[in-house]
Amino acid sequence: MYKKLEFRRQFLLTRDPLNSLSEWNWLKVGKYYLYYHPDLEVNHVELEKTSILLIGNIYDSLAPEKRNIDILKDIINMAGNLSSFVSWVKQYSGTYVLLYKNKGEYFIFPDARAIREVYYCTINNVVVCGSQPNLIYQFSDPKIQSSNNPELLDFYNNHLWDSRWVGNETYFEGIKHLQPNHYLDINRRAACRYWPNEPIKQLDLDEAVSKSCKFLQGIMRAITHRHSAMMAVTAGTDSRALLAASRGIQDKIYYYINNKGLGHNHPDISTPRKIFESIKVPFYVHDVPKDVDDEFRRIYLSNTFLATEQLLPSIYNVYFKNHSEKTCILGVGEIGRTFYGNQTKNLNSYRMAYKLTYKKSSYVIRQCEQLLAEMMPAARKFHINVLALLYWEQRLGNWGAVKNSESLIGIEKLDPYNSHLLNEIFLGVDEKYRDYRQAPCILFREMIRSMWPELLEWPVNPPCDMRDRFISFLEKVGIFGLLKELKYQMNYVMYNLKR
Are residues 32 and 79 in the same domain? Predict the structure, then answer.
């Protein structure tokens, strides 16, 4: 019944033809073969010795009417080499993978946050890369084995939670995950950092607000120009800003929230409901049943290697059964806020593992040693907070990407914030305007004020229980940050005593 949903919207790049994927579409790209699920959009352009293949969707904020193929033509006309390609592509948003071929060299580029996942083989195999490690495993030749690293297996079996992997390794030996801000050099089977590649331009608040608003408004128009769209709106900062960016095209968007046992008095339901009543725009609250078809569950869990059942009821009962023809807009703008705080002096791997919620995993602490050594030179050179890179590349690049991959069985998702250009604008603003503890922070508050000021009449992320109210009180009196740091220092002392 659900056969067509197996590895839905996924792809596989191979060195040789595969007879076992006869129901998928395929395309020869130079010396490689691309196989892709019929529900996954693929576009391809060539110019002399250069070709670019697009898997997924890409959007131009300055020209919302342009289609995927139009943007590909723009890129190939402007990107004569790898360096110019990198610089040109960062202006776009979308959920995509780009395969760039130039004079016999092949490079795979994910979108800014690597939401469209890419896993690749580091050892010689018929499979080059694909959407999921278990998809690669299924078609690998020679057959890939599971990892024999005891630290990795301990992390996988005893510490891993909510799909929050750390690092670029996987459960499988010889398969790695392509992280945000890195491209895959196919000929060398190696990932290389390509961003940041130039100093972040420092912006004053007004200029950053103007540029950010113009970008988001353009991307929202580009998405609604191409797709029937739906957008989740909560009491949070990111969806409030995207709602503001949709002013003028709100009749083209189905606004909603999934009530997954929150209750109708929860701020994520009651706050947007009041907002939409005031602005006289329809808003839908989906009460999500818990029942899921067993066969759908089986395919869902096998499609994405790190899938959990957390989102499954919503994916099945809301997106798959009732809105599968739509594209879902779901924004994460937290790179524009100091989620992990300001960079500390003498930053170490334990603090990074602590931020990632894995203070007891020796594997994660060891991975963070490698991450810090790789991130720090780029961060110092271009004056970027290493903790911002950590959140971007590890929290969003692993957990966030997996959550998107889980949803592909039911619906295609897009994030307007997912752009190097926009995130450069965010990171170019003084951190005092991007304080995560403020709701909303000054940058986002002024963005909302610029696009739709009436939306600020309602609180952003108001406390919903005693714990939230207590934390809010501690923040107001200025000691919450001090208490958090004290807690960290106590944990760090205990860690060192046990070593």
Answer: yes
Backbone angles phi, psi at 346, to 5 degrees: 55, 45
Confidence category of residue 498, pLDDT binned at 50, 70, 90:
confident
33 sits in the region (left: phi over 0; alpha: psi -120 to 50; else beta) called beta
Range of the domain at 217: 205-336+397-462
| Residues constituting the chain | 499
The single-letter DSSP state of residue 186 is: T
* Whether residue 110 is found in the same domain as residue 231: no
pTM exceeds 0.85: yes
- Domain co-membership, 171 together with 63: yes
Contacts for 208 with CB less than 8 Å, ≥ 6 apart: 425, 426, 428, 429, 433, 443
pLDDT band of 391, cuts 50, 70, 90 = very high
Helices assigned H by DSSP within 33-143: 68-78, 82-89, 133-139
Q: What is the dihedral of CA 433, 435, 436, 442, to 10 degrees?
A: -30
Residue with tokens 């989620």: 339
As a whole number of angstroms, the distance between CA 342 and CA 331 comes to 23
Tell me the angle at which helices 480-498 and 466-476 cross, rounded to the nearest 10 degrees. Answer: 100
CATH number at residue 44: 3.60.20.10
Write the secondary structure of 223-255 as one string of H (helix), E (strand) and C (coil): HHHHCCEEEECCCCHHHHHHHHHCCCCHHHEEE
**pLDDT tens column, 471-485:** 888 888 889 889 998
Q: Name the domain count of the chain.
A: 2
Name 387's Cβ contacts closer than 8 Å, sequence gap at least 6.
338, 340, 341, 342, 343, 347, 352, 355
For residue 414, tell me if it sits in a domain.
yes
Q: Is residue 472 part of a domain?
A: no
What residue has token string 């395309």?
Answer: 27
Cis amide bond preceding 196, omega within 30 = yes
pLDDT tens for 139-154 read 999 999 999 999 999 9
Query: Comparing C-alpha atoms, which of 425, 29, 478 is closest to residue 208?
Result: 425
